[in-house]
Amino acid sequence: MLSNLTFSQRRVHTVGVGVLLSAVMLCATPVFAQELRHVAEVMKRTNSGSSSFGPVSTVAPICNETMGGPGCTFFTVTGASGTGKIVEGGDDAGGSFTWTEDTTGPVLALAPSGAHDASGAPTGFCRPVFGTGHWVFEDGSTIDLNKQGSSCCAASSCSGFFSGMPRHVTHVSTIITGGTGRFVGLKGGGERAGSGPGAVIEEQVWELRSVPEN
Questions:
Q1: Rg of the Cα trace of the chain?
Q2: 8/6 Cα distance (integer angstroms)
Q3: Which residue in 13, 51, 82, 122 could disulfide with 112, CB within 3.0 to 4.6 Å?
Q4: Residue 41 exposed, middle or buried by CB count within 10 Å (0-12, 13-18, 19+)
Q5: Is the whole-model pTM more than 0.85?
Q6: Would you say residue 168 has pLDDT above 90?
C-alpha cells in the first residue's frame, strides 16, 4: 500500500514539473507585434528609360525592337528612374530615396478612356501596365515592389502614345515583395496616382515587424 502511494506521488510530481517547464518555455518565447503604418510618398521621374518591342520579326507583320511595328504584341520600358521622398509615415517621414523600375504591357490591348470628339469618336485610350520597382534609401536600405494598373493618354492627340508618351495619367496598385536593412520583413502595398510629365503620389500601408513584446 505504501509502495503504491509513493509511486502515485512521484507520478504527480513528474507531471507537475512537466507542466511547469512547458509554461516557462511558453513565456520565454518572444511574441512579435505587428505595427501598421500609413505612409505617403512623392516620386519624380528623372529618366524615362529605354523602350523596346517584341517579339522581334523581320517578316510581315514586322516588329522592330526599337521602332515597333504592326507585328509587335508587347512593349517594355527598362531603366526608368527618379527620386522620391516620404512625406508621411512616422519615423520614416522625410526619408529620401532613389528608384528604378521596369514596365511592360500589351501593345494591342487598348481600351477607350472615355475621351471623345464632337461626333463621339474616341480620342483617348488606356493600356494595362505591369512591372517592378526598386527603392534605395540614403542609409542603403531597400524596398522592392511589384506594380499593376493602367496608363491613359490625356493629350488631344494620342498618336504617339507608345513612342513619344504625350501627357498621360496613371493609376497602379503596388505590393511590397521584399526589403533590406531597416525594411527587412516589410510587408504591405498601396495605390499610386500620377500624371506625366509630372510627379507621382503613392499612399501605402506598411506592416512592420516590431520588437518583442516580452
A1: 28
A2: 5
A3: 122
A4: buried
A5: no
A6: no
